[in-house]
Amino acid sequence: MNITADTRCPCGTGETYGSCCGRLHAAFDADGSLTAPTPEALMRSRFTAFAVGHEAYLLATWAPQTRPESLGLDESLRWYRLDVLGSTGGPFDAAGTVEFAAHYRSVPGTPEGQRVKGVQRENSRFVRNGGAWYYLDGNVS
Ligand SMILES: [Zn+2]
């Protein structure tokens, strides 16, 4: 997905990428800082990282105890819409949750040739460690 600072952020806040998830990605790219203030902000920035293929950010924001070695992002899927259905956890909590629906569809012209479209619903758990939020795990429904 081609995205610039002025593109509408894929996470669906209605803000531009540069003033939404792009700020979190840029802080990480600069010096590894994880600056999402809440589980929902982290969730949104991770969805956007999926949308733009920022694998390093996805791994860095994964709690060490559940983090995979690598992700192998599926290039044939495009994550194009996020609906946050509910969330808990703020800047002073140690844990939180985000319930969301992430919409995806296949990229036209992929080798499989099949058009895939779907929604992944998940209730994710997040933990705060050293001032930064991390994705712990999720129940896919
Ligand atoms: Zn965003």
Order of neighbouring strands in the sheet with most strands: 1-2-3-4
CATH architecture: Roll
The poorly predicted ranges are none
- For the secondary structure, the number of strands is 4
**Termini separation:** 27 Å
Residues in helices, as a percent range: 10-25%
Mean pLDDT comes to 92
Briefly note the structural class of the backbone: alpha+beta
Could you please describe the fold and organization of this structure?
With 141 residues, the protein is an alpha+beta fold. It has one domain (17-140): Roll (Nuclear Transport Factor 2, Chain: A). Helices cover 22% and strands 33% of the residues. It is built from three helices and four strands. It has helices at 21-31, 39-52, 55-60, and strands at residues 77-88, 95-106, 117-129, 132-140. Strands 1-2-3-4 form a four-stranded antiparallel beta sheet, with helices on one face. The longest helix has 14 residues, at 39-52. The radius of gyration is 15 Å and the shape is globular. The mean pLDDT is 92. It binds zinc ion (ZN). The site of zinc ion has 7 residues, from helix 2. The site of zinc ion (ZN) has 7 residues, from helix 2.
Tell me briefly what this model is.
By secondary structure, the protein is an alpha+beta fold.
Comma- or semicolon-separated keywords:
141 residues, 4 strands, 33% strand, Nuclear Transport Factor 2, Chain: A, binds zinc ion, alpha+beta
Blueprint of the fold:
Blueprint: H1 21-31, H2 39-52, H3 55-60, E1 77-88, E2 95-106, E3 117-129, E4 132-140
Antiparallel strand pairs: 1-2, 2-3, 3-4
The protein binds zinc ion.
